[in-house]
Amino acid sequence: MIKAGIIGGAGYTGLELVRLLLMHPEVEISVVTSRRYKGKLINEINPHLSSFIELEYEDIDTKEIADRSDIVFVAVPHGSAMDYVPELLERGARVIDLSADYRLKKKEYERIYKRPHKDKDKEKRGAVYGLTELHPEVADANLVANPGCYPTGAILAVAPLVKEKEVNQVIFDAKSGISGAGAEPSETSHFPNLAENIIPYQVTAHRHVAEMRMELGVKVSFTPHVIPAIRGILTTAHVFLNTHSEEIEETYKRFYEGTRFIRLRKGMPSLSSVRGTNFCDIGFEIEEKSNRIVVISAIDNLIKGGSGQAIQNMNVMFGFDEAEGLWFPGLVP
Length: 333
What we know:
This protein is α/β, with parallel strands linked by helices. The chain is 26% helix and 22% strand. It has two domains: 2-146 and 306-317, Rossmann fold; 149-299, Dihydrodipicolinate Reductase, domain 2 (2-Layer Sandwich).
């Protein structure tokens, strides 16, 4: 049994961490922080957790969080995680950061997020990008940078082609549920603006594209949209190969052999099949007499695109079964 702390336990990803970890047989939640709700019972603020947790939200210093935890999940906004991670590591806790603070090289992070990175030893931390399907070295990491939700669906959709074929270019078009925008309402998440509508945003310059390019190493273009759904990301990838190929199915089967949460579909994936799960469903079609392959992936943005993936990383880091606490079917309808 290990003890897990959660910094930032009142937002969507923090709440999903609490909900999922409560059902994990190898984990005891030791501390959950929230400045807004300090001293209040978690299950009073969040009635869906009633009967499952009796802890209060706390606002304590980083040293105490580390001393009470074997693993700490940092679920705070971009730019804030770097205030916690160095001391957590120095105090001996292992860390999974759900923000973007440790995903990119320092200069790239500062260019994209328009702020200085305050951790002077960032590059020495050896943060591992937390896609276990691509990075088994997560097992030995003390610091894991949990990927963004859009990059998760995008990277997993095309990694087999990029790694085993000669890919010229990838164009991603992604549709995300409204929860991806976080708990605070915005112009794109306000109900009258989004209901019966689809809103494209940051059409050519979304900051998550840097993660896709970093992991895939090919020419990538990306356009996101928000749709009137609560959960899920459906990603359409247009992959242009240098030469025509018919052995695509075998490429995917070989690449993802032995993985627990990749499901290859004969038809096209749907959000309803992955909602509430840690699965990534992938399907594709080959355009006749063309070098274009259209790949579709579906994930739940809050689970495989966030908190579930963080727990999957934790499982690998501590030698648990990778699917422990995450092996359940989707919510249909």
